[in-house]
């Protein structure tokens, strides 16, 4: 056991969830960054739920769309890296939760909402996007970075510096 009272299997499961989620988010950001043709325009144009008005405003303003695209790509990369290496972990997990929840609110799996592009599977309310948001919220609540990650190393370094003074 550790100071957070996680058993080894619990800590292992949380670390695996953290790595898998971080990898997926990081890879999504890198794939977008490496594709000069990528833009969120098509996704935002399809928005049909609570963020439809905001998404319409973004797609009607090329300069705003460019900022949103930049923030999306580099936000995904920063969130993914933060989760994987455990640096500013809670900020990364909460930011990831908010970002992924915004994706879901733009494109929810609701009855009567149809999109021009086919969706994966047959979902009703809960789809993989909402599951990933739940995973990110879980990670934020059950932090592992102070046990295994750069946050732990920084914390140890600070504690050693305080003891030496």
Structural overview:
This protein has 165 residues and is mainly α. It has one domain. Helix 1 packs antiparallel against helix 4 and helix 1 crosses helix 6. The longest helix is centred in the first third of the chain and has 26 residues. It starts with 7 loop residues before the first helix and ends with a helix.
Keywords:
165 residues, mainly alpha, 67% helix, globular
Structural class: mainly alpha
Number of helices: 7
Shape: globular
Helix content: 55-70%
Spans of at least 5 consecutive residues whose pLDDT stays below 50 are none
Total domain modules: 1
Number of strands: 0
Tell me the series of helices and strands, N- to C-terminal: HHHHHHH
Which percent band covers the strand fraction? Answer: under 5%
Profile the largest sheet.
none
What number is the mean pLDDT?
Answer: 87
Q: Taking Cα atoms only, what radius of gyration do you get, to the nearest Å? A: 18 Å
- In whole angstroms, how far apart are the ends? 30 Å
Topology:
Elements: H1 8-33, H2 41-45, H3 52-59, H4 62-85, H5 89-106, H6 128-141, H7 150-164
Helix pairs in contact: 1-4, 1-6, 4-5, 5-6
In short:
This protein has helices at 8-33, 41-45, 52-59, 62-85, 89-106, 128-141, 150-164.
């Amino acid at each position: 056991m550790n100071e957070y009272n996680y058993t080894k299997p619990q800590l292992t499961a949380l670390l695996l969830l953290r790595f898998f989620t971080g990898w997926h988010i990081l890879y999504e950001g890198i794939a977008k960054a490496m594709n000069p043709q990528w833009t969120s325009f098509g996704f935002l144009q399809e928005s049909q739920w609570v963020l439809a008005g905001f998404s319409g405003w973004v797609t009607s303003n090329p300069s705003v769309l460019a900022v949103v695209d930049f923030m999306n790509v580099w936000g995904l990369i920063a969130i993914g890296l933060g989760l994987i290496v455990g640096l500013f972990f809670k900020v990364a997990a909460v930011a990831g939760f908010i970002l992924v929840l915004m994706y879901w609110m733009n494109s929810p799996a609701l009855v009567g909402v149809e999109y021009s592009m086919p969706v994966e599977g047959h979902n009703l309310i809960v789809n993989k996007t909402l599951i990933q948001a739940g995973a990110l919220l879980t990670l934020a609540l059950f932090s592992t970075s102070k046990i295994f990650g750069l946050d732990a190393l920084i914390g140890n370094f600070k504690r050693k510096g305080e003891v030496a003074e």
